[in-house]
Every structure is written in structure tokens, then in C-alpha cells.
């Protein structure tokens, strides 16, 4: 029964708790899904029950061969489950026509999986055309999607996949998956085949696209850092698709469920946590500011008053020019207006990880934070980062897993009591599914 | 030789046309048959092996022997000629069609299924176009081969240029015998080259630009 109780609030939360942001995604429920291949002793996926909340990015991670890809492909039934039900947006889709189901679900594979004999536009248009959209509507949609994935329609529409770089192919792959505006997007190691720089850019773009569209995205990766960066929720699997931990990135980093998860996170869990917090989320230190032309003696006396050692020189539009120590100030009479090119600057949208990197190489052990139009916001130093980390850590440890989606294996001995094939377990789950559909 | 050709020009032209027409029609039938058979076998490794063995062994059957055997059930004329030409034309195309279809990247097929193409749509819109350049190469090999085989069908009184060769060979040493044989051979070679050019042109028209080499 505990299972049914936690299903209901999460499903409800997905549809009603967030009325302002427009979620276009749909919730997914894997209900005691198993996959067994004939001639194999163990099941590839064994009695997995997993809830995927609408409008969120859920990352499936685990070592190779753990069944994460099988799990993903069972959602759109590219692999038919041996047992169990797949519930999409409250509808049981286990029995419906697989091709029709897949047209409602976007699918992206490594390197995009583009059809090499079709142009970019034809690739993207393939699903809308099958759904019987008019020519004009398809053409407009192609251009709209190319713009969404930052490709100029004029330039790329009529190209063939081989005339694109790996990153561009991947972008077109995402555009094709989004073509018919599906509520769910499945991604199988989408950024595995591109170079690290392109990968970071594509990840950032996916985050911004998701902010705009609020789809439900299920993404398989073996890269834990990618999971931390992209995921709202991370599901960590071990062999046989045994779900070891299903939680937010912050909580997994702060409180790994067991040794397997610890090993999987790898070294530097603390450093990885730094990537979860952005500079504008922590309290910045104030600074003594000065303008070009000010008398250094005035500035020095203000530094004495505030008990600071450095003064930030800003220009007329509040942009930092120099960052002067007492000793540097003492050598000058008036402050100059030249710009120091080696100023340790960090944007307020950057992660604490990036900020720490800048700080470590700056001579001061701190960095200047800039906001919109490069205007000066404050100073961030190592102590600020340390404090933010310990706070985040404490928050992650103490926060209850409220609204946490359900994820268990029937065979597994997890913290949650495993439902021992109790027949009445089906009913609450089903009811929860219907409730979502009815809203 | 010039006199020989000049005096029978219309006859040669007609026979050439019949020969060409026989080969092209048989090629069309053979291509369709080969693709259908390939489509049925390419997803099963066991059946693929069988198909490849059949096409290898089939090519070792002497065409002359096969056509002789067909007289009993089918008599003389067009029917046995078409059967023999189609039989030999299918073999190289089948082999290439199987190779072409099995070498389509599985990831692309999976992504086609993943976006919601049915099994048949995936075959028609993804796998077949991607295998088409390889299949067409098989058609070209086939075309060259059956140009010669079509000449042998004159043995069962089939249409085409074989008549010149057979009648010439039958009265070798007689007047115009050599000219008759030479006319048949040269015309077959010319037709083969013309057909090959046409098939290259067909490739230009039908192979999508994205996978053209």
C-alpha cells in the first residue's frame, strides 16, 4: 500500500502543482515491467516499477549491459515487455499498435540516426507527413524546429546528413524527434558520439529547449556527470535493471544509497555537487567600488572603514575594470581607466565549479561576479563556496523525498517494502493513472 | 560484311530490338523477383545463406542445358526464352539485394522504427532506397550477362539476335555464314553497351544525392 500512496501525490504534482509553467510532457509509468529473452537465465529487466513525472528529465544511468537501454526501448515498445504494463499519460499503451505509439513519442539515438538518403527537411518531416499534416504546415514546422535547435533553415534545410558535422546531425536528430510535438522524448546516449566541446554545447541547448518546451525526457547515459548536469531525477541501475537509487542529483551525491552508487559516482562527489549550484544562488560578498579618476587616498580610507583589502574599479556602466590591492592603490595617486585583461570574472549563471576554477587561478583567491550586460554584482570567494556547499549538503540530507517518483523492483530488497505479488497492488496504480488522465 | 549488313539492315534492326526488349523486360521481372525474395530472406541469417548459395550454384548451371530441358514442359518460342533469361538475371541481383539490405546500418533502421515507421514503411522508405545503389550494380552485372544468354534462346526459337549466330554457325564455311555470326555477336555487344549506359543513367536518376558516391 505504501507504493500506491507515494504514486498518487507524484502523479498529481506532475499535472497540477505547477500551473504557471506549461508542461507539454506526459507522465509515464512502468508497472512491474519485465523483459526476458529466450535462452537466457536472468531477466534483462526484472519486475521494474518506475514512475516518470511529466515535464521532467529523467536520466537512466548504469554500467553497460545493466538493462537501461532495454528499459528505455520498452517505453516506446521497440522492445516488447514480456510482462507488465506501460502507462503513458494515464492510458495503458501496452496493447495498442506499436507504430502508432512510437509516432507519439520522440526518439533520438546516438549520432542522430538520420536517414542518409533524405535531406534534413525530409528527415524532420517524416513523422508529420505520416500523420497527414498539410504541406505548408510541415514546411513551417521544419523551419521552426531548425531554428529551435540553432540551425539556420535557409542554409541547412536542403542539406544531406553527410554534409553536416556530428553535432549538427545530432541537432537534426533532436529536431526530428520533436517534429510531431510528442509529449515524451526518449534519448539513447544522445551525446555519446560527439567531441567534448560540442557535447557541452548540445547539453546546454537541450537544457534551454527543455525550459521552453517542458517535455518529459527519458535519457540513457553511462556518463554520470551528464546525468547530474541534465537530470531532474537520476535512476541508477545495476545488472538486470535493478534500480539502486532514484532521486535528485543533489541527494544522490549527498547520500548515495550504497557502495555501488558511491563507486558509480566515482571520485569527486563534492566537486560534482559544485556543478549543481549556480553563482547567483549563493550570497555574494559586497566590495568597495571606485571609479576612474577617484583619489586613491579616499579609496584607501574607505577600505579601512569596511575592513577590505581590495577595491573594484568600475566604469560608468558598472562594468569592472580593475581589481586593486592596497599596495597597488598606495602606488597611485588617482585611479586610471584602463581595463585589466586578466580580471577574474565569472558570470552569475555559471556553476560554482566554474567559479572555483577561476578563483584558483586568480591571484586573489576570489572572483568578480558579473550579471546582465557585464555589470558588477559582487565578489565570490572560496569561503562563500564552502558555505554554500555545506548548506546544500545539509539540505540534501535532511530534505524528505517529497514528490519523489516511485521506482522499485519487485524482486529487490529495497528500503521500500517490495509488494509480494499482492493482486490488489494493481488497483491503486491503475487508479492513479486514471486520475491523471481525468484531470 | 558491309553488303551483308546493308542488305539485311531492317531484319537486323528488328532482331536487335526484339533482343533488347526481351532482355529489358526480363531484367524488370528479375529485379522485382530478386527484391521480393531478398526482402523475405534478409532478416534471417540462415535464409540469407541459402539465398547466397542458390545464387552461386545457379550461375554454374550451363544456360544451354537449362534451355534444352525447358523445351519439354514449355515447348518452343517466347516462354522458355523468358524463363531462362529471368532465371539467370535474378541470380546476381538477388545476391546484391541481400548484401545491400543486410548492410544497411541497423541503427538507422532502429531509428526509423523508433520514430514510428511500420516494418513495411521502413523497408520501402529506408532500407530499399539505401540498398538501391548495390541492387542496381547487380542489375548492371545481370544485364551484361543475360545479353549473351538471350542469344542462346534462339535455340528454342526465341526472339532476338541469336538467330544470326545459330544459322551462321550451322552453315559455317557457306556464303555469308561468318558475316551472319559476326553480325549477331557485334550487335549483342553494342546492345550490351547501350543498355549499360542506360542503366548508369537510371542510377543517376534514382540514387538519392545523399548516398551517391
TrEMBL record, chain B:
One GO biological process term: glycine betaine transport
InterPro entries: ABC_transp_perm/SBD, MetI-like, MetI-like_sf
Claim: Membrane is one of the keywords in the record: yes
Main localization, broad class: membrane
Cellular component GO terms, alphabetical: plasma membrane
Keyword Transport: yes
CDD domains named in the record: TM_PBP2 (cd06261)
Compartments (UniProt record): Cell membrane; Membrane
One family name in Pfam for this protein: BPD_transp_1
Parts of the chain that traverse the membrane: 20-42, 54-76, 82-109, 177-202
Keywords assigned by UniProt, alphabetized: Membrane, Transmembrane, Transmembrane helix, Transport
Membrane topology: Multi-pass membrane protein
Domain ABC transmembrane type-1: 16-199
Protein family according to the UniProt entry: Belongs to the binding-protein-dependent transport system permease family.
PANTHER family linked to this entry: GLYCINE BETAINE/L-PROLINE TRANSPORT SYSTEM PERMEASE PROTEIN PROW, OSMOPROTECTANT IMPORT PERMEASE PROTEIN OSMW
Protein name: ABC transporter permease
Organism encoding this protein: Arthrobacter pityocampae
Amino acid at each position: 500500500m505504501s507504493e500506491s500512496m507515494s504514486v498518487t501525490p507524484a502523479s498529481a504534482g506532475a499535472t497540477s502543482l505547477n500551473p504557471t509553467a506549461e508542461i507539454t510532457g506526459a507522465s509515464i509509468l512502468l508497472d512491474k515491467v519485465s523483459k526476458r529473452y529466450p535462452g537466457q537465465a536472468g531477466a534483462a529487466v526484472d519486475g521494474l516499477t518506475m514512475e516518470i513525472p511529466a515535464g521532467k528529465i529523467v536520466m537512466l544511468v548504469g554500467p553497460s549491459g545493466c538493462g537501461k537501454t532495454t528499459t528505455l526501448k520498452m517505453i516506446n515498445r521497440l522492445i516488447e515487455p514480456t510482462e507488465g504494463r506501460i502507462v503513458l499519460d494515464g492510458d495503458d499503451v501496452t496493447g495498442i499498435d506499436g507504430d502508432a505509439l512510437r509516432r507519439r513519442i520522440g526518439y533520438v539515438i546516438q549520432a542522430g540516426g538520420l536517414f542518409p538518403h533524405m535531406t534534413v527537411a525530409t528527415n524532420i518531416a517524416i513523422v508529420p507527413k505520416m500523420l497527414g499534416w498539410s504541406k505548408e504546415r510541415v514546411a513551417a514546422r521544419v523551419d521552426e524546429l531548425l531554428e529551435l535547435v540553432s540551425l539556420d533553415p535557409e542554409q541547412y534545410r536542403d542539406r544531406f546528413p553527410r554534409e553536416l558535422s556530428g553535432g549538427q546531425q545530432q541537432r537534426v536528430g533532436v529536431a526530428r524527434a520533436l517534429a510531431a510535438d510528442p509529449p515524451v522524448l526518449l534519448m539513447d546516449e544522445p551525446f555519446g558520439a560527439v567531441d567534448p566541446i560540442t557535447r557541452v554545447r548540445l547539453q546546454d541547448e537541450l537544457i534551454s529547449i527543455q525550459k521552453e518546451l517542458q517535455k518529459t525526457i527519458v535519457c540513457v547515459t553511462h556518463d554520470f556527470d551528464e546525468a547530474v548536469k541534465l537530470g531532474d531525477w537520476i535512476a541508477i541501475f545495476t545488472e538486470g535493471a535493478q534500480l539502486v537509487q532514484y532521486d535528485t542529483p543533489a541527494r544522490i551525491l549527498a547520500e548515495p544509497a550504497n557502495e555501488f552508487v558511491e563507486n558509480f559516482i566515482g571520485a569527486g562527489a563534492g566537486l560534482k555537487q559544485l556543478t549543481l549550484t549556480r553563482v547567483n544562488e549563493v550570497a555574494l560578498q559586497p566590495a568597495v567600488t571606485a571609479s576612474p579618476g577617484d583619489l586613491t587616498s579616499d579609496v584607501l580610507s574607505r577600505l579601512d572603514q569596511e575592513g577590505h583589502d581590495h577595491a573594484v574599479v568600475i566604469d560608468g556602466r558598472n562594468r569592472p575594470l580593475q581589481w586593486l590591492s592596497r599596495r597597488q592603490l598606495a602606488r597611485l595617486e588617482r585611479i586610471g581607466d584602463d581595463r585589466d585583461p586578466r580580471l577574474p570574472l565569472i558570470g552569475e549563471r555559471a556553476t560554482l565549479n566554474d567559479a572555483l576554477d577561476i578563483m584558483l587561478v586568480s591571484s586573489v583567491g576570489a572572483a568578480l561576479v558579473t550579471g546582465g550586460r557585464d555589470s558588477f554584482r559582487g565578489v565570490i570567494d572560496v569561503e562563500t563556496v564552502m558555505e554554500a556547499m555545506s548548506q546544500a549538503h545539509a539540505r540534501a540530507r535532511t530534505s524528505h523525498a517529497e514528490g519523489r517518483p516511485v521506482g522499485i523492483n519487485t524482486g529487490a530488497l529495497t528500503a521500500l517494502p517490495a509488494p509480494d505479488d499482492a493482486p490488489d497492488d494493481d488497483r491503486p496504480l491503475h487508479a492513479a493513472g486514471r486520475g491523471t488522465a481525468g484531470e | 560484311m558491309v553488303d551483308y549488313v546493308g542488305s539485311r539492315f531492317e531484319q537486323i534492326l528488328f532482331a536487335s530490338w526484339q533482343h533488347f526488349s526481351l532482355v529489358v523486360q526480363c531484367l524488370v521481372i528479375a529485379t522485382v523477383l530478386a527484391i521480393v525474395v531478398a526482402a523475405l530472406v534478409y532478416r534471417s541469417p540462415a535464409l540469407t545463406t541459402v539465398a547466397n548459395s542458390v545464387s552461386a550454384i545457379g550461375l554454374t548451371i550451363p544456360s544451354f542445358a537449362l534451355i534444352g530441358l525447358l523445351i519439354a514442359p514449355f515447348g518452343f518460342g517466347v516462354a522458355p526464352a523468358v524463363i531462362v533469361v529471368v532465371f539467370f538475371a535474378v541470380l546476381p541481383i538477388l545476391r546484391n539485394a541481400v548484401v545491400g539490405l543486410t548492410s544497411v546500418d541497423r541503427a538507422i533502421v532502429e531509428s526509423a522504427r523508433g520514430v514510428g515507421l511500420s516494418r513495411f514503411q521502413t523497408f520501402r522508405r529506408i532500407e530499399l532506397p539505401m540498398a538501391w545503389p548495390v541492387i542496381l550494380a547487380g542489375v548492371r552485372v545481370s544485364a551484361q550477362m543475360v545479353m549473351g544468354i538471350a542469344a542462346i534462346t534462339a535455340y528454342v526459337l526465341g526472339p532476338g539476335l541469336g538467330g544470326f549466330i545459330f544459322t551462321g554457325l550451322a552453315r559455317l564455311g557457306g556464303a555469308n555464314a561468318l558475316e551472319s555470326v559476326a553480325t549477331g555477336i557485334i550487335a549483342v555487344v553494342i546492345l550490351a553497351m547501350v543498355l549499360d549506359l542506360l542503366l548508369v543513367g537510371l542510377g543517376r536518376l534514382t540514387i538519392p544525392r545523399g548516398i551517391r558516391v
